Amino acid sequence: MELVFLGTRGDLEKKTRRHRRHSALLIKEVNARVLIDCGADCLGRIEALRPTAIVVTHGHADHAWGLANGAPCTVYATAETWQLLAAYPISKRQIMPERKPIDVCGICFEAFPVEHSILAPAVGYRIAANRRSAFYVPDVVAICDPEAALRGIELYIGDGASVTRPIIRRRGAVCIGHTPIRTQLDWCRAQSVARATFTHCGAQIVGGNGRVLGALVRRLGRERGVEARIAYDGMELSLDELYGKGSVGQQLSHSTRGP
């Protein structure tokens, strides 16, 4: 299973060469090219990516508004997300059930509800193919069943909105926003997840010193027994190569090394 980080920027105006496009992940497995999320900056670009399917985590602009003109393939989203995208001219719609694994072009997806937004309820995806597994959750305050979501996975791909400071607000009993990288690494340690990569980068990472922040994330990971790093646009990972064959950093397919 090959992972290509097409974008790693959150919903903010500032852009850099390393974090230029909204967070989106392309999964390549045999003949499948499954795109997770399709933000507003994907408008007019979807066909060039040649996806065989598109899977959406939630209906916020930086994750779904690239579908405003339709899609060239089947789109999978939860029933709540489809309510937000009801006006989009998407002819091939599939409802993604929660906590029920389904086959998407030969790749197994299981949607796990997460706390992030009231208006645009979000899920994270447990993804498996050819005995490889990962969990993708670009926006998260909390995973509703972290043990089931993370048990046995090889790679956690999480929310990079903040490194150490929570960006969380309360609406009654509900928390919305983003949990920092440090806390997500605690989740990985609790579930024995050995590797973590962070996308959906916020202002701290996009506007900060990449080398300093990259070193900080690696240190936070080492303190918890997790090999951690910040993703960047164009970064490629092969789970087949990662499994038992060295570190994430050693197995980057992209030619540009970074924090």
Describe this protein's structure:
It contains 8 helices and 17 strands. The protein is an alpha/beta fold and 259 residues long. It has a single domain, classed as Ribonuclease Z/Hydroxyacylglutathione hydrolase-like (Metallo-beta-lactamase, Chain A, 4-Layer Sandwich), CATH 3.60.15. The strands form 3 sheets. Strands 7, 8, 9, 10, 11, 12, 15 and 16 form an 8-stranded mixed beta sheet that branches. It is globular, with a radius of gyration of 17 Å.
Query: Using DSSP, what is the number of strands?
Result: 17
Radius of gyration: 17 Å
* Sheet having the most strands: 8 strands, mixed
The structure class reads: alpha/beta
Query: Any guess at the CATH architecture?
Result: 4-Layer Sandwich
Relevant CATH superfamily: Ribonuclease Z/Hydroxyacylglutathione hydrolase-like
Unreliable segments of 5+ consecutive residues:
245-259
* Arithmetic mean pLDDT: 93
Number of self-contained structural domains: 1
Query: What is the element string, with H for helices and E for strands?
Result: EEEHEHEHEEEEEEHEEEHEHHEEH
CATH fold description? Metallo-beta-lactamase, Chain A
Q: How much of the residues is beta strand, in percent?
A: 25-35%
Note the main attributes of this structure.
17 strands; 259 residues; alpha/beta; Metallo-beta-lactamase, Chain A; disordered C terminus
Question: Briefly, what is this?
Answer:
With 259 residues, this protein is of the alpha/beta class. It has helices at 46-49, 61-64, 79-84, 146-150, 181-190, 203-206, 210-223, 239-242, and strands spanning 2-7, 24-29, 32-36, 53-55, 74-77, 93-95, 102-104, 107-115, 122-129, 132-136, 142-143, 155-159, 167-171, 174-178, 195-199, 227-230, 236-238. The chain contains eight helices and 17 strands.
